[in-house]
Structure formats: C-alpha cells, structure tokens
Amino acid sequence: MSLKIPELNINEFTRGEAKTLNALNFFVSDILINNIIPNTPFRSTCYQIALCTSGYIKGKIEGKEIYYDRHTLAVLTPSTVFEMTEVSEDYRCLIVIFKKNFLVEVLNNIYFLDRFKILNNNGLDYVKLTDLEAEKLIIQIENIRDKMKDEQHLFRNDIIRNLIIILLYETENILVSHHNLYYTTGKHMRHDKVISDFHELLRKNFFKERKVLFYANKLAISTHQLTKILLKDTGRSAKKHINEILLSQAKSLLRSGKYNITEVASSLHYYNLEEFSRFFKKETGITPLKYLKTKRSK
User: Are strands 64-69 and 92-98 parallel, antiparallel or unpaired?
Assistant: First the structure.
C-alpha cells in the first residue's frame, strides 16, 4: 500500500482552464483558491510564484502554521506540502504557475535555472514586500497574463518564457535582499546542480528510500560529499532533509483522519510499526498516537 499526498498538475490545479488556453506548461491567474479543498494537504507538480493582493490565508506549509496576507510574496516548489485552514472572503492573489522544463525548453544550458535558489529550496519561501516591490511584481505578472491570453501570437510561448525568467530574477533579488542570502555563481554552480537534483530525487523517492547512500549513488558522489554540500548551502544534512520530508508526509496523512497509524507507517515503507513510532518520537518528541490525540482535541 502506498498513501501519497495528492499531487495536482497545472490542468487539475486550474480545473481545466489551462487546457482551454493551451497553456499546460504555465498559467497565470488572479485567484485559484476556490480549487483547493480546505484542511486537505496537497502538493502541485509545478512551481508557483504568488503575490497576495488582498485578504488573507491561514494554512500549513510542511506542517508549519503560516499567515499569508496582502503584499506577501510566496514561492512554492513541487516538493511543498500545503494545507489551507482558513481564507478570508476578500482574498485575492496574482499567481504564476510553471513547469521547470518549460523554461529550459530552448536554452542551450539546461542547468541555467539552477542558479535560482528559489527553485532549489525544499518548501516555502515567503516575505512581506514593500508597496514599491509589490507594485513592480504586479506589473510583471500582469504582463505575463496579458500575453498568455494572446493565443494567436506566433511567439507567445517564447515571450512568456522570457517574461517568467525576468520575474524569477526580480523575485530572487527581492528574497536575497530580505533574507540577506549568499548568491552563488561560477564554481558554485556544480553544488547548485547537486542540490537541485537531490531535491528532485527526494521528492520522487522519499516514501520508499530513506538511506543517504541511495541518493549519493544516484548523484554519482559520496555520502560525505552530498552531506557536505547540503550542510554548506542549507545548514541541514542529507539525512535531515530525508527525515523532514518523511515527517511532513507522516503528519499530513495522520492529520487527514483517513488513515490509521499502521497504514501511514506502511505507506512510508515502515513495515515495523515500532520502527516508525521510534522515528516519529525522535523527530517530534511524542508518539504518533499522542500526536493524533493532540490534533483531534483541537
């Protein structure tokens, strides 16, 4: 048995609207929250850059409580598990959804996008923008949306591709300035490629592969090298990354109320319930059973 957090592709995420516009590799909207079922964890198969323009959302990202309101910029990757718990009636946002392969489709360097930290992070990055920063991004996103609707334009996709890349540069610049991030270039690009590929492998295999050696072998490097690279860039070891996504999946499945502890453990390839319980308690300080009781009492 394999219980996985539901994954939505662009067409499912937009309830067919993307297909209508022949935009299955990208989409721009001013609101998509009506397509999300409250209190149900999910992850999308695409990247999202979303800017809240009014109202608010309360939710959980990787099990952590978030409050997303006006002029908050959020970047979600395909590995991000999101769960909406509350949304205001006046909530609106501008959101750009795209697949990574769409942006590198005509580029000579397929690793070009690895320079963007926002595309390599595992989870969510979000910051509160100034009015000027928000206005700049709103103009750029609206330009992409206007071009998306121009289906008769011979070079529509090429123009949109470049507009999204420009948006990525602007978004990265904003996040770097807000977080004071170290921007890697040149000789560090190899490390970015390793991290990007590791996150992709992790997203596809975490529910059945828990050993660092598996990922190191796939990346053709040693376990020591992999952990060293991840520690330098993220501050967390390879094993910590694996445990985090496993724990996030376990919590989401338990919170859903649809599965018992044995079923959740089995879905994560823990065929020994005691082993799963030890893992869960080590990471959280409480047993899965106590976690369930705590969530149900709230």
Answer: unpaired
Q: The tokens 């000027």 sit on which residue?
A: 132
Residues in CB range of 266: below 8 A, 6 or more apart: 1
Of 64, 82, 72, 84, which Cα lies nearest the Cα of 171?
72
**H or E element: which one contains 192?**
helix 189-205
Residue 12 Cα distances to 16, 50, 177, angstroms: 6, 18, 34
List the domains of the chain with CATH numbers. 7-179 (2.60.120.280), 186-296 (1.10.10.60)
- Residue 48, Cβ density class (10 Å: 0-12 exposed, 13-18 middle, ≥19 buried): buried
Coil vs helix vs strand at 266: helix
Please give the model's pTM, rounded to 2 decimal places.
0.63
Over residues 220-273, the pLDDT tens digits come to 888 888 888 888 877 888 999 898 888 888 888 888 778 889 988 888 888 888
Q: Are 206 and 241 in contact (CB under 8 A)?
A: no
**Encoding tokens for residue 100?**
């990574």
Residues contacting residue 274 through CB under 8 Å, at least 6 positions apart: none
Cβ neighbours of residue 46 closer than 8 Å, sequence gap 6 or more: 9, 10, 13, 78, 97, 98, 99
